[in-house]
Amino acid sequence: MDAKDFRLLVMLNENARQSFHALGRRLSLSAPAVRERLRRLERRGIVQAYWVAMDPAIFGRRDLLVSFDREWSREDALRAAGAPDVAWVAWKVDGGLTVQLWPRQAGGAVEGLAHFVEREPNWHAFTESPWKGNVSGLDWRILDALIDAPLASIGMLSDTTGLSPKTVRNHLAELIRGQAIFVVPRLGLPTDSGVIVYNLVVSGTAPFAQLRHRVGDAVLIHETGGTPPRKYLFGRADSLGELTSTMQALERLPGVSTVQLTLNQEMIIQTDFVHGLVREQMKVARSKTFMYT
Fold first, then answer.
1. How many domains is the chain built from?
2. Could you tell me the residue range of the domain that residue 92 belongs to?
3. What distance in Å separates the CA atoms of residue 289 and residue 137, rounded to the nearest whole number?
4. Which of 38, 72, 203, 276 has the fewest CB atoms within 10 Å, measured from its CB?
5. What's the CA gap between 16 and 260, in Å, rounded?
6. 171 and 96: one domain?
7. Distances (CA, A) of 95 to 14, 27, 91, 114
C-alpha cells in the first residue's frame, strides 16, 4: 500500500459513493487505475464491505461510545449487540469491545449496558452532533433502501423507492453533504504482511497538529468531549514495529494520557434496529402528510 492507496481510503471514509472519476481527479489517477487499486485493497481484506453510518441526532437520539477491555469472545460480542439501543459493536483484535449506543436520554444508558453485559466499561463518551438539518419523508424512504445496499446505483434506489432518479440523487447528495449520513468502508486487517492501516484512540488535551507531527500519515476522523477528551486517528504504517514506535512516541507527548490501538476483527451492525428507527420516522412523515391533505 502506498500513499495514494491511503489517500483513497481517506476519501472513501469521507464518502464511499464517490465515482471512480471523482476519486481519480483528486488522486491524479485514471478511473480504471482507481478501480484496480480499490479491488486490490478488497482482495487484501483491508476493505471488507460498506455501510451507512448515521448521525443518531436525525432520530432525536444521543451518540454514545462505550469501551470495554479485552477478553471478549465473538459470542460475547454478539450478545452485547442485542442490548437496547445498540447501533453497532466492534470486536477488537485484542479481544476488547467498543459499543455505539443511540439512547434517547443520556442518563442511565451506560449503567443499562453494563447491567446487560454484566461487565463494567473502562470508558465512555458522548459526542455532540453538529447536524442541524431536517430529514423529509422522501429522505427516510431513500435511507431505508440505502441501509441494505450502501453502494446501490441511483437507478436501483429509484426502482426500490419509486422516486425519480433526479429526486434520489438530489436528496441523497444533501443527506451526505449535511452530514446526516456517511457511506463508508468497513476496514479490516490485511490478509498478508506489509503495510497496515489502523485506528488510534488518543486520550488527552494534545492538539491534533502535535499528534500528526509524530504519527505522520494520519487524519483525524472523530473527536469526543468529556474527561479526558479523545481523538480518533486513522493512519498508515509500514509494519507493526513502526506502529509500536509511533504509539510509544505519542504516549510521551505532553497532554497525552493514553493511546489505544483499535483494530477490528469484526463489526456487528444492528441493521434491524436502524431499519426500525427509519421506519418509525416514515410512519410519522406519512401521518403528517395525511393530516395536511
1. 3
2. 49-188+267-293
3. 9
4. 276
5. 26
6. yes
7. 28, 36, 7, 17
